[in-house]
Structures are given as C-alpha cells and as structure tokens.
Amino acid sequence: KTLFAAGLMALSHSALAITVGFSQVGSESGWRSSFSQDMKDEAKSRGIDLKFADGQQKQENQIRAVRSFIAQGVDAIIIAPVVETGWTPVLKEAKRARIPVVILDRNIKAAEGLYVTRIASDFTEEGRKAARWLMDKTKGQCNIVELQGTVGATAAIDRAKGFNEVIGAYPQAKIVRSQTAEFTRAKGKEVMESFLKAEDPQSLCALWSHNDEMALGAIQAIKEAGLKPGKDLLVVSVDGVPDYFKAMAEGDANITVELNPHLGAPAYQVVEKVLAGDKGIPKLISTTGEVFGQDTAATEYQKRK
Ligand code: AHR
Predict the structure, then answer these.
(1) What share of the chain is helix, strand, coil (3-state, %, to 5)?
(2) Does the beta carbon of 36 lie inside 6 Å of ligand 1?
(3) For a substitution probing ligand 1, which of 239, 262, 287 has the most ligand atoms within 8 Å of its CB?
(4) pTM for this model (two decimals)
C-alpha cells in the first residue's frame, strides 16, 4: 500500500514537472559558462526538467535545437540567441505548437507576438558607461583599439553604438583599429597581436573590449609585446568575470561594466507565470550592472572566484 502511494506521488510529481528546452549560444566566455550553470542550478532547485542545448556559437545549431524541443512537446522554450536576425520562421513554428518562448540576453528582430518577453541588460548603456570612464580618465584624448564581439550579436552592435555615441563628443578621441574577436580569449589575443603590429604601440592609449574574455587574451598579447596593460595601455571591458577581477587587482586592467549572469530565476519565473495563464508580462525585463575598477577588484575577486 505504501509502495503504491509512493508510486502515485512520483507519477503526479513527474506529471506536474515543467519541461523547458533551453537553447544556449555556446561556451565562448566565462560569463556564458556562469550563465549556463545558473540556468541548470536554478532549474534543479525548482524541479524543472531542463533540456539544455549548446549551440556552439552557430545559429543553425540553435534553430535545430528549438525544432527538436517543439517535436518533443516541451512546455516552454528559452532562447539565448547568438545573432539578432533569422528567428521568425522557427518562432512561428513554436507559436503554432502553442509553446511559449522567452528570450534571454541578446535581442532578436522578430514580431513581438512571437515571444513572451526578453530578459536582458541595456548593452548600449554598457558601452556608454565604459566610454564615460575612459573619457574622464584621459580627458578625451585617446587613440583606442576595439575588440568587437560576434558579428550580428546585440551585445556587439549595441555596446559599439553606446561607446561611439559618448566618444563622438570628444574630437581628440578616436578608434584607430576595430575588429571582431568573437567574444573568445584566443581570438582576443590573436587580434590584439595584429593591432600591435599594425600600429605604433606608443601611439595607443586604450583597449576597448566588448567582453572580459577577449580583454584577457589581449592583456597577454600586450605583455608579450613588452608593454604594461592597465598602464601603458588602459583596458576597459564588460562582464565582470572572476579572472578579469584578478587582472584588475594585479593592475593589468582598469574597469569592467558588470553583466549579471543570474538569469535563471527571472526566466523560470516568467515561464511559471505564463503557464499559469498570466497575460500581463512586460515585453522587456531589464537587468543592470555597475562599473567596477581596481579599487574594489581584490575584494570582488575573493567574493566571486
Ligand atoms: O551576450 C552577452 C555577451 O556574450 C557577454 O558579454 C559575453 O561574454 C558573451 O559571450
């Protein structure tokens, strides 16, 4: 009798458990890995059955994963999109299957009716914050090299836009080299090496990197070129990963604009609400992050490592 009751309980629990398919960009950065871990931990603590798919930085892999979630009949789909365009057909398929979709982090260009909400930071403002710090520090006189994120990704497009908007007001500040390093450490190092060969390093004042991971690779390249990162070349970036806090604490980097990787709780909250019939969810749920510098870096590193 007890066994029968336990069996019934297990059955009703699995019948009640929400199944969520999550299509993640990949694991290109420390920030992305923390975000993936948070999604897994949070799903576990809420008893959500999570189907996790790593897109390896390719949209076609992400679209294939979403189609497979639809075929499996998941209760909800979460997408952290690699690029902005190209999502409409698969979102229409999810809509036809009556599966709600939540967008996390980067944006998509698609009709608002095709997804429930987007939970994200303001990437344009992150670019502005990085530029404001740099313009204050250098009194607006600075030759900058820029490591861009993945081409077509909101985090690259909008961070560049915000940064350029601010430095546009300073005639003596300009970006002398700019290239994508796809948000990875290895490419960050490679592209920075090429910048240092193409330009007279003495003429450069700062590196503006769209994420910490590329900045960490670039810091290595700057050191190998016999220069002191954080001094000879100021380093400004976005994310706030532990390795970068360590670099700031050691004087190798100057500031980072924090990007919150804890998107699991707000994402699953939305899923739970929408499955319970809530129709009042706003189209954008914003997260924010502050600017961190060398002064607090050692303490922050201890907290975050
Ligand atoms: O979309 C957010 C960006 O993607 C993060 O800044 C970067 O680290 C990641 O790869």
Answers:
(1) 50, 20, 30
(2) no
(3) 239
(4) 0.94
